[in-house]
UniProtKB/TrEMBL annotation:
Its EC number is 1.6.5.2. Residues 5-147 form the NADPH-dependent FMN reductase-like domain. The keyword Oxidoreductase applies. GO terms for molecular function: FMN binding; NAD(P)H dehydrogenase (quinone) activity. InterPro entries: Flavoprotein-like_sf (IPR029039), FMN_Rdtase-like_dom (IPR005025), NAD(P)H-dep_reductase (IPR050712). This is Chromate reductase. Keywords: Oxidoreductase. It comes from Saezia sanguinis. It is an enzyme of class 1 (oxidoreductase). It comes from the Bacteria. GO terms for cellular component: cytosol.
Length: 184
């Protein structure tokens, strides 16, 4: 049996963010041969092309974590109808310098949550546009536009709403199949 390392990138820096809670809960639904590793983006400096020849250490570590993965799950909030700047910065850092992208070919999964009914739909669309340019084959269906509710996830990071759990499990199952297909 193969083991798959999945990088999980959360587009929010807040420790108790809704999207981080969903990401933690989601990783508990992965099968045993899938190991999730949260790759933090808050310590990355702002991208500056002047540093392409001397990449800062946090960027090198970030790119190594992405490169060592067999897939990437992005869980993002929506800020001003798009992706958070910190997430865009991470995408840019991981793709540079030109020709040395850590993202290329990594099967991606995109989802997010918000208190609103459209659950980060516009941010996800913008993120998918960027991932296409980065040559990341991205799972298209099913989509997850999740309206966050307090009673969805308990303090231990378990999904307690059965409908939500079933819905997210269907996404996880599709993503697992996607990763296996792309990595075969």
């Amino acid at each position: 049996m193969s083991t798959y390392k999945i990088a999980v990138v959360v587009g929010s820096l807040r420790k108790e963010s809704m999207n981080r809670q969903v990401a933690v809960a989601l990783t508990k639904l992965l099968p045993k041969e899938f190991q999730a590793e949260f790759v933090e983006i808050g310590n990355l400096p702002l991208y500056n092309q002047d540093f392409d020849s001397a990449t800062p250490e946090p960027v090198l570590k970030f790119k190594q974590a992405i490169a060592a993965s067999q897939g990437v799950i992005f869980v993002t909030p929506e800020y001003n109808r798009s992706i958070p700047g910190v997430l865009k910065n991470a995408l840019d850092q991981g793709s540079r310098p030109y020709g040395q992208s850590a993202w290329q070919g990594k099967p991606a999964g995109v989802l997010g949550t918000s208190p609103g009914a459209i659950g980060s739909a516009l941010a996800q669309q913008h993120l998918r546009n960027v991932l296409t340019f980065l040559a990341m084959p991205t799972l298209t269906q099913p989509e997850v536009f999740l309206q966050f509710r307090e009673e969805m996830i308990d303090a231990q990071g378990n999904i307690i709403n059965e409908g939500t759990k079933k819905f997210l499990q269907s996404w996880v199952d599709a993503y697992v199949a996607w990763v296996k297909k792309i990595n075969s």
